Amino acid sequence: MQLATTTVYAIGLLTVILAFAYAGYLTLWVKKQKNENKTIERIAGLIRSGANAFMRKEYTLLAGFAGIMAVLIFLFLPKPVWQGGAERNLTMAIAYVAGTIFSAIAGKIGILVASLANARTAEAATHGIKPAFLIGFRGGAVMGLMVVGACLLGVMGVLLLTGNSSMLLGFSFGASSLALFAKAGGGIFTKTADVSADLAGKVELGIPEDDPRNPAVIADNVGDNVGDVAGMGADLFDSNIASMTAALVMAVSLDGGIVNGQFGSKVMMVIIYSALGLLSSLIGIFTAKIGDHGSPTKALNNSTYVTTGVFLALTALATLLFKDFSWRIWGASAVGLLVGVIIGLATNYFTDDNAPIVGKVAHASKTGPAFTILSGVSYGFMSVLPAMVGIAISAMVAYKLCEPIGPGYAMYGISMAAVGMLSIVGMIISNDAYGPIVDNARGLAEMGGLGEETIRVADELDSAGNTVKAVTKGFAIGAAGLTVISLLGAFMSEVNAHIEEINVGLAAAGKELMALINGFDIMNPTVFFGIIVGAAIPAVFSAMLILGVDKNAQRMISEIHRQFKEIPGLAEGRPGVEPEYNKCIDIATTGALKELIPAGLMAIVATLAVGFIGGVNAIGGFLLGNIISGLLLALFMSNAGGLWDNAKKYIEAGNEGGKGSDSHKAAVIGDTVGDPFKDTAGPSINTQITVVSLVASLVAFIFINLHIF
Amino acid sequence: MQLATTTVYAIGLLTVILAFAYAGYLTLWVKKQKNENKTIERIAGLIRSGANAFMRKEYTLLAGFAGIMAVLIFLFLPKPVWQGGAERNLTMAIAYVAGTIFSAIAGKIGILVASLANARTAEAATHGIKPAFLIGFRGGAVMGLMVVGACLLGVMGVLLLTGNSSMLLGFSFGASSLALFAKAGGGIFTKTADVSADLAGKVELGIPEDDPRNPAVIADNVGDNVGDVAGMGADLFDSNIASMTAALVMAVSLDGGIVNGQFGSKVMMVIIYSALGLLSSLIGIFTAKIGDHGSPTKALNNSTYVTTGVFLALTALATLLFKDFSWRIWGASAVGLLVGVIIGLATNYFTDDNAPIVGKVAHASKTGPAFTILSGVSYGFMSVLPAMVGIAISAMVAYKLCEPIGPGYAMYGISMAAVGMLSIVGMIISNDAYGPIVDNARGLAEMGGLGEETIRVADELDSAGNTVKAVTKGFAIGAAGLTVISLLGAFMSEVNAHIEEINVGLAAAGKELMALINGFDIMNPTVFFGIIVGAAIPAVFSAMLILGVDKNAQRMISEIHRQFKEIPGLAEGRPGVEPEYNKCIDIATTGALKELIPAGLMAIVATLAVGFIGGVNAIGGFLLGNIISGLLLALFMSNAGGLWDNAKKYIEAGNEGGKGSDSHKAAVIGDTVGDPFKDTAGPSINTQITVVSLVASLVAFIFINLHIF
Prior knowledge:
The structure is a homodimer of 709-residue chains.
Chain A (H helix, E strand, L loop, with lengths): L4 H28 L5 H39 L9 H39 L4 H34 L3 H40 L11 H39 L9 H23 L8 H26 L5 H25 L4 H9 L4 H34 L6 H14 L2 H23 L4 H57 L16 H42 L14 H72 L9 H44 L4
């Protein structure tokens, strides 16, 4: 069967409408659930307004940032506007702004639903695990469906309106800008609040977690929403857009362009695969069920497996139906998906509390905190091996599978492996957003005094969230790895497109032509220079974010001390006395955004500096170095952080001395170190790599023309 | 002036004789110093015999290992022996064994003199800083002169006897094998003892550092000798040999071989530069002086600067005199040396207690140990930037400087930058070995009851050792970075030499020729596969070593507890009651060697696996990934460890609450985490990279013929 471009658009649009409709239905369903407890409603209201305050401030700042960026893009990208092409530059600037807006809306809606779902999940937990699970899960699913639907809609929109795949780089860069704010900023916010609440509350003052006397407790719950719901959503929105963009830039080049608005088969394949991925996630979400005494972990994992299976079947069917679709490319995306599962399982081995490693770290904690740290760092280092080998193998297999199709197909194959890994991103986001919702619900159950049994149910839901998070995080990092590899391919495509254009002019003037770039040789000193500098950037970026949390937490802890000293009756818990929650939220918000900007700028400035020193060759190396060390550090920090978190929980469950023992104190220190590792720096590195890769592609033309060596 | 090969040999040999003679004189001088305190002599004797016990066990194990390796080398390297060339393989095996023996002897002599010097330094400290400094420094200088002399002698010997630069790879591999045992094994030993002595002694039992009741205290002092003297010596012996080997392999290829035993000018240049480096170190050592109340830090740094200046002047003179020597190559090695100084200064900024960063980590410790760790990790991450940018720039400048000379010269230029950086290695080793000698002296002064004033003098000497260590460590890591880059060049040279040889056969058979390797393209999936896997190895290797220290320390702490429980009168310090020091030394020795072997094998097996999967392209990538992540982690761990150590000392000097405060406790935890970072894993990564690079070059022929992809 032959596919027409209009059919592709129709299929894509239909899936998006279906996803949005289902998300709308789920939102109404969640809203309809019981929400009658006054205390909970009041506290949930505080959390909601705190989250809104952060988002408002963040979006205001972002609007300014995006405005400046849009002007710069108009002036310089893809080519300086005074060299002609003002319309093209304007389109790029608009695509950029659109990228930020799409991502912002998807995040906003996710937060909205999550903050509706948390209170209702808490209340439903009084009736058992079954109803509570469903509310938590469906609240998260809205985010998943919205984000992926918005991705597909945005990408199709840009293609339809501009007919130029380079404009997708602008759109994707917009999404990355937002992700940088949302993920890194949200990450600093959430860990500032978490660390301060724990240190000042649990450790110093000896009051329980989620105690309403703690001034940081609302900020902590707000953090779950802005860091883990909105931030994670923006992050995966960004990864998903970036993987589609990389695939489409190469697809368009393989198809020989988008002629008269008609897609070639490669472009069609990317869009159809993405649409089928969204459909599969929808089906997976639909099938998520749990019995009266069922295991929420199993329910979450099962729907992930359903999504995976449906995606493989549907794409196989599509490949069977449409004669232009290649089985080799299907193979590449299947390999991506399967390796994603393997990486997830390996991550699980290192971080799950039923697996041996968590027990070892807990045991080491008996000798003191230094050994908690040393063993966690060590196993964190070890955990990078399976994931990196998995990424290496999937990239090589995808390449080798697609190489025989023809020149240029190999890198396209890798990008389709990334699209395959990210196909189930709707499901991943659902599972991920489920986590903070039930985490909040647990807090609300405690603060609302819903009783031991309800807290136990909420704890079970929460623990399931942590376990599946490890698996989905494996997917996210694996996919990011493949995506940035294909962004390297996209960068080379862009560079060569520019060189060909320049050569037309040179040929007309009878001058010597520029050579196309065939690759980046590590024995070339300019490439090598780029590699080494690029490798240092994720380390510096992580350091800046962690120090940001550190500084910000110091400020918040001082504020907590002040409140306990100055507000009469607060420490004793006199009825009616409440801490000034807003002060803590303010500190977290202002500090997070203040600490984030230098880190983001550092990465961008380093890219520009390397490009102006060594040109496109240095940038090719720079991207590679950035990817390698970024993957290494992101995996290390995410896994070590998860490991410490679960080692602490393992001890709290009564092992190695249990709660209050010296090993518990050591494990709490480990967990505090791990918090910014796993929730601030680790996951922000993905975004940093994407931003840097996109900047490189966007500024490619200027680097070709202007560099020292 | 034209140089003859015999003149080059004569200059080299004369320098070696001069160095050995001066070392002999210094040994006699040290021996002549007063050594009359009975207690000190008895304890020094215990340390000496403990060190000997470790060395004996280590060398026995190594002899077995080297024997097996020699047989394997004879069977397989450079080509399987059944394909002919038994004599060549035998020579390679002998060169390998010679490499281990040379390094072992140099290490043994260093330990011997160091363990003579420590007691005498302690005693001299009763008379002030001037005499004590001189004994400590001259004791260390013996090690420096012996190691560098042995390097030059060995390399010249191999060239003279075999006339084949490939045999240097075998010799260098022998040195690396020993370095792996000495550095990683010694590193595990020393940190096992240090951590256990501190934790069980200072923290749990509340007895002071170096208290003779502590059963681990002798093991701790033994550790300083076997880890920091012998291990560091073997490590720098290895780096120096490797840098000379890499330069010589490329030099021989540029010279068109060693024809009739006559060197070309490139080979001459490497040997002359190395000889002049040794001579400069000798002059630097000779000029080391200190006033009655002078600063030992200044004295150490001054002699480093003297060495640097003399080297630059002498090599410039040589370039002026000999018409075949190129100013561009002189420039490359000067750049290497200067960047080494810059890296050293940058390292100093991050770890020196007079610089701001140490104060910040100390301040963060006030909030608790989690913040000690988080801020140390962050600044550790940041500290990689200047060093990596320095290495990147020096490699690029050296390359660009030497590229115009002709094809192949650029990589040779990088190798000469490494030779330049390592030219002053004799001085570096002297400074480095000075550290543990005065550290031991401090312990002996305390255990021998020499009084407060003597301990203060010893402390001042010790602190100078720590400060200059940061600078010399910067040199060592920078040089290792450049060396492994040039080993990558050497690997490509070797591969192409094999391919040319294979092509002769193919041409004779009328078959299609194999293409030479021009470089390694990161867009080639096989190269990329290698890069990602290679990047994971240093992380896993470090993890295995740190866990080794961890496990081993657990064993030793149990033993300390047992002794305090079972030996009557030990805890109270009843006169005449002594702990069983030997039990602790045994545990450290056995454990260190047991934990080290899997880590070393893992790195070698991974290299072979990648080579058999992806052939020489994958190995090219593998080496790059290994270098990048190895540099990153080595810098991070060394600097973070040094930073924590000095933050603790800064607090102990009375800042941020001083000794015994909560911030001090937090800083001690940071220091314990940092110990295996900076003295076990961090510096062992250099050796791991060198081993892997040499294995790759040695097995290149087999990889060319046998691989899956």
